[in-house]
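To the wet lab folks,

You asked to see what we're planning to order before we commit. Fair enough. Below is the target structure as tokens, and below that is the sequence we designed to fit it. If anything looks off to you, flag it before the synthesis order goes out.
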């Protein structure tokens, strides 16, 4: 069984009194591991963790999907006493990244600073966090300049749950690589950012048809997906709404 708590997402639900921002952070429990997947943009993950009765000192691992500041910004505020937490990420998460207007949007914390906080495990290779949890490392056939973009995979009885940050490397590429790495052909579900914001309708429709062809049961796009993309995906798939504070048991 795997348990996910959405610590930070763009949207929140009425009456849950949690904070949201255009970012992502997911807490994961499985195989006796307690994993923080991405950290959001600011310190709101600390507020939300407290309100969800989640003690981040008990983390065993932190995994970063890629080096953008809406996934790594919270690292600045994670000043934990527990120095045994392993942080796994692609080594290029520290690459400088700039908007066309010169605004920097890369990881706001240096490698040296992280080494003082956590046990760093920077790798381009596939890394097995537990018996059933795999960090994919560098994705084959990456379609973007963000070569550090990766994902987590959890094996649920010979079906895969894929957890993505933004899918800059291409959702189809991630799925194909997850299958190759694990030797498992059936995808149970995908949750996380799908990188569909402001894409042409035709491009989103291709992804929607691909997910339908793969017979993926649990499709949960969030963070970098707008309403239009979710509507198009829903034409061919049963879409799950994901908000800050949601708890998912699989």
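Sequence we intend to order:
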């Amino acid at each position: 069984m795997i348990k996910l708590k959405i610590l930070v997402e763009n949207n929140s639900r009425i009456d849950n009194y949690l904070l949201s921002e255009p970012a992502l952070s997911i807490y994961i429990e499985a195989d006796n591991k307690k994993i923080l997947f991405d950290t959001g943009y600011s310190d709101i993950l600390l507020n939300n963790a407290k309100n969800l009765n989640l003690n981040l000192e008990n983390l065993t691992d932190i995994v970063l999907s890629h080096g953008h500041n809406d996934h790594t910004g919270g690292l600045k505020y994670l000043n934990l006493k527990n120095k045994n937490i392993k942080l796994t990420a692609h080594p290029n998460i520290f690459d400088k990244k700039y908007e066309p207007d010169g605004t920097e949007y890369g990881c706001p914390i240096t490698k040296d600073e992280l080494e003082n906080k956590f046990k760093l495990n920077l790798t381009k290779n596939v890394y097995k966090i537990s018996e059933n949890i795999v960090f994919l490392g560098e994705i084959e056939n990456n379609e973007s300049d963000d070569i550090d973009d990766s994902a987590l995979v959890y094996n649920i009885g010979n079906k895969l749950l894929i957890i993505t940050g933004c899918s800059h490397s291409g959702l189809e590429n991630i799925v194909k690589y997850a299958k190759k790495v694990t030797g498992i052909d059936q995808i149970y579900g995908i949750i996380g950012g799908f990188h569909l914001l402001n894409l042409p309708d035709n491009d989103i429709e291709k992804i929607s048809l691909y997910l339908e062809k793969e017979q993926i049961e649990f499709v949960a796009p969030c963070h970098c997906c707008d309403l239009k993309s979710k509507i198009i995906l829903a034409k061919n798939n049963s879409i799950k709404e994901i908000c800050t504070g949601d708890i998912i048991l699989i």
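Structural context that might help your review: Residues 3-249 form a domain with the Metallo-beta-lactamase; Chain A fold (CATH 3.60.15.10). The CA atoms of residues 12 and 191 lie 16 Å apart.

Thanks,
Computational group
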